[in-house]
Amino acid sequence: MSTPANLYDEAVQIYESGNVEQALTKLKEVLALDENYVLAHSAAAVYNQKLGHFDDAIAHATKVTELEPDDKFSFLQLSVICQRCGRIAEAEDALAKSHSMR
Q1: Range 4-100 has CATH code 1.25.40.10
Q2: Cα 51 vs. chain centroid, distance in angstroms?
Q3: Under DSSP, is residue 57 helix (H, G, I), strand (E, B) or coil?
Q4: What whole-number distance in Å separates Cα of residue 20 and Cα of residue 43?
Q5: Residue 48, exposed/middle/buried by CB under 10 A (0-12, 13-18, 19+)?
Q6: How many angstroms separate the CA atoms of 60 and 69, rounded?
Q7: Nearest partner of 77 among 55, 56, 98, 101, judged by Cα
Q8: Average pLDDT, whole number, for the chain?
Q9: Torsion over CA of 35, 37, 42 and 46, rounded to 10 degrees?
Q10: Is the pTM of this model over 0.90?
Q11: Which Pfam families does the entry mention (predicted)?
Q12: What is the pLDDT of residue 80?
């Protein structure tokens, strides 16, 4: 039986081979097993953004900040994702949050 970690590693390998959609499908398998698997949400944010699925990208990046509210990088990633999705005000808010953290 595959573990979330094994499936995540497979998703990354698929992504690195150039198949973003298939990698995203594999991440959905990870999240079906563990809905709070932070690395899967983080990767899903990036993969969705690359595919132009901006609402999904932001939702996954936001979930990362909910799961890791004390992690400055989580808010930086949310800022970058929002910026790349054209949501500048949200990007600025996330960046401000990251700067306010120690």
Answers
A1: yes
A2: 13
A3: helix
A4: 10
A5: buried
A6: 14
A7: 98
A8: 97
A9: -60
A10: yes
A11: TPR_8
A12: 98
Q: Are 81 and 46 in contact (CB under 8 A)?
A: yes
Residue 101: left if φ>0, alpha if ψ -120 to 50, beta else—which one?
A: beta
Cα dist from 94 to 15, 16, 58, 69, whole Å: 26, 28, 11, 12
* Confidence band for 102, pLDDT divided at 50, 70 and 90: confident
The structure tokens listed for 16 are 């690195």
The pair of three-digit structure tokens given for residue 90, joined into one six-digit string: 């949200």
Is residue 30 packed enough to be buried (19+ CB in 10 Å), middle (13-18) or exposed (0-12)?
Answer: buried
Model confidence over 12-49: pLDDT tens digits? 999 999 999 999 999 999 999 999 999 999 999 999 99
* Residue pointed to by tokens 């949310």: 78
> What type of residue sits at position 60?
H
For residue 91, is pLDDT > 90? yes
Q: What percent of the chain has pLDDT over 90?
A: 98
Question: What are 98's two structure tokens?
Answer: 């990251």
